[in-house]
Design brief:
The protein has twelve helices and eight strands. With 325 residues, it is mainly alpha-helical. 48% of the residues lie in helices and 11% in strands.
Length: 325
């Protein structure tokens, strides 16, 4: 008899920018503590509203007897606003997190990986009452209490969460959202760099240059997909990022944009700073720096390739030819 496969709670998402991520879905038992924390906070806010209204009503009662009724109406409105819009406001403007979700390390996102929109946050929170159904009566647990159906059981939300692929409750299904663990994992492509020009050019990238997380994702995606593109298409795509890098690194203008991005990928993800420098062979004497382009001989073109002719060695000339765009 075949053994049962373990439950996989990860889901792949491709963003509109064509970047693939893996998220770990937050199941009902991961979301329950967050709900209880937010529940306590909401009722804490209700109590604060009640205390504030009591103080204001007490001050105004000296002038008129009307504030009693007005205070009760304001209290009911405060309960409504707190319970219905607490989650909406926080999720919409704090990257899908409420206080409870933040403490429990989870957040809400759109099913396509984008941050949750205010409209989606509003819709999923308005339907929370349906997910908490059916409600149980108080006297089910305390026989001496009156027949009041006010205890939410959450069976509807639990059932839909367990039966949907993205573990979505009714509110999530209607809003197009899902709850994930707040740590998205993206896998780097396994790229074998066998081009000697890549570590040679990477050795000239300043060691203090730190790429952003967004740039790292872009490099990983580019390195994975460049093999499916023609060289002209690679240069066309890479030039948008390589031009400012060439200025920053003070490289020659004729550096191949595709090669520069590939070298930056190599330096960021594959090169081990603790290991010995790679053996660059005949490319060891090559310099892509703009200041070295004015050496005797200057720039020339051989067979459609840009070549720097220097007086150092024949190997340097070969390196310059292979490095040109």
């Amino acid at each position: 008899m075949a053994s049962a496969a373990p439950l996989d709670t990860t889901i792949g998402v491709v963003t509109p920018e064509n970047i693939a991520f893996e998220y770990q879905l937050a199941g009902p038992f991961r979301r329950l503590p967050a709900y209880l924390i937010d529940f306590a906070i909401r009722w804490g806010l209700v109590i604060l509203i009640w205390v504030a209204l009591m103080v204001i009503g007490g001050l105004l009662s000296v002038i008129s007897a009307f504030p009693g009724s007005l205070g009760q109406a304001m209290f009911v409105v405060g309960i409504f606003v707190t319970h219905w819009f607490y989650g909406t406001i926080l999720e919409a403007y704090f990257n899908g997190r409420t206080v409870g979700k933040w403490l429990c390390g989870i957040r809400v996102i759109e099913i396509d990986g984008r941050p949750v929109s205010p409209r989606s946050a509003l819709l999923r929170n308005l339907l929370r009452i349906a997910d908490l159904a059916p409600v149980a009566a108080i006297n089910t647990y305390q026989p001496e209490m009156p027949l009041l159906y006010v205890i939410p059981t959450g069976i509807v939300g639990l059932t839909t969460t367990m039966m949907t692929r993205r573990m979505q409750r009714l509110g999530d299904l209607a809003a197009g959202t899902m709850v994930v663990v707040d740590e998205r994992k993206w896998q780097l492509p396994v790229v074998k760099v066998d081009d000697a020009r890549v570590p040679a050019l990477a050795s000239f990238i300043p060691g203090d240059y730190l790429i952003t997380r967004k740039m790292a994702r872009t490099l990983a995606t580019y390195a994975e997909r460049r093999h499916f593109m023609t060289p002209p298409r690679r240069r066309e795509i890479a030039r948008k990022l390589s031009d400012p890098l060439i200025e920053r690194f003070e490289f020659r203008k004729d550096i191949d944009p595709d090669l520069l991005l590939y070298a930056l990928y190599y330096k960021t993800f594959l090169a081990d700073s603790a290991s010995e420098p790679a053996d660059l062979g005949p490319l060891a004497g090559y310099s892509p720096l703009a200041k070295d382009a004015n050496k005797p001989g200057g720039l020339g073109t051989v067979g459609g390739q840009v070549v720097t002719v220097t007086t150092t060695s024949v190997a340097d000339s070969q390196a310059n030819a292979s490095m040109g765009s």
